[in-house]
Each structure stands twice: as C-alpha cells, then as structure tokens.
Amino acid sequence: QVHLVESGGGLVQAGGSLRLSCAASGSIFNINSMGWYRQAPGNQRELVAAIVNGGDTNYADSVKGRFTISRDNAKNTVYLQMNSLKPEDTAVYYCNLKGKISSISFVGNYWGQGTQVTVSS
What is the Cα–Cα distance from 36 to 73, expressed in whole angstroms? Predict the structure, then answer.
C-alpha cells in the first residue's frame, strides 16, 4: 500500500506563511509526479502545484509568485511553501502522488487525507 501523510496546515493571518509537507511511504517502485491540490467548501478540487520526476513544476495562476513546490527524492517527500497567504487560499490541501507500486503495475493515483489551511483577514 502507498501512504501519504500531510502536515503543516493551520490558521494564519493574511500575509503570513505556511509550509506543507507530504511524506510518502509503503510499497513505491517509482514516482512519476507529486503535487498539491486544494478544495474549498462548495468547490471542486483544483490543482495548486505539481512537480514531475524530471523536476519541472507547474502552478495554478492564482498562486504563481507566492507558492513554491519542492521535493526531497531521497525521502519521497514533497513540500509546498506558501507565502503571502490570502483568505482565498483557505481550503483543505491534499497531497497527490502518481506512480507505480511495482515494475509491472500501471501508474496509480494516490491521495493523502488532507490538511486544513485557514487564512484569516
């Protein structure tokens, strides 16, 4: 099984910063990409940032210049540094991993349990 555990969420004032972490463990043969999604009440889950195996990154337009995604491949961990937070960033943030659990398996899609980020005005 693949397990993703997020941490680092919390309550901050507008303009503040948070750093989210997601550690992957279990049977992981290969990771194609890791990323962060978020879902606010009443909204659909949306991509925030992702980083692929080769190191390329992509971001939602709403967070460009404020958020930075990074990884530690040795630890199978991905981070999301969030600066200049806005109330609109309030959501549950979910870690996502795309990869294989064995050399002959198909690429799977795995999710963490989510961590709450609340930004007050």
Answer: 16
**d(Cα 88, Cα 111) in Å, to the nearest integer?**
23
CA distance 72 to 64: 21
The tokens for 74 are 């040795």
104 three-state secondary structure: coil
| Token code pair at residue 26 | 């279990």
Question: What are the pLDDT digits (tens) for 84-103?
Answer: 999 999 999 999 999 999 99
Give 52-96 pLDDT, tens digit per residue.
988 999 999 999 999 999 999 888 899 999 999 999 999 999 999
Contact (Cβ atoms closer than 8 angstroms) between residue 78 and residue 71? yes
DSSP letter for each residue of 36-60: EEEE-TTS--EEEEEEETTS-EEE-
- Strands 10-13 and 115-120 turn out to be parallel
Per the structure block, which two tokens stand in for 92?
Answer: 């549950």
Counting beta carbons within 10 angstroms of the beta carbon of residue 72, is it exposed (0 to 12), middle (13 to 18) or buried (19 or more)? exposed
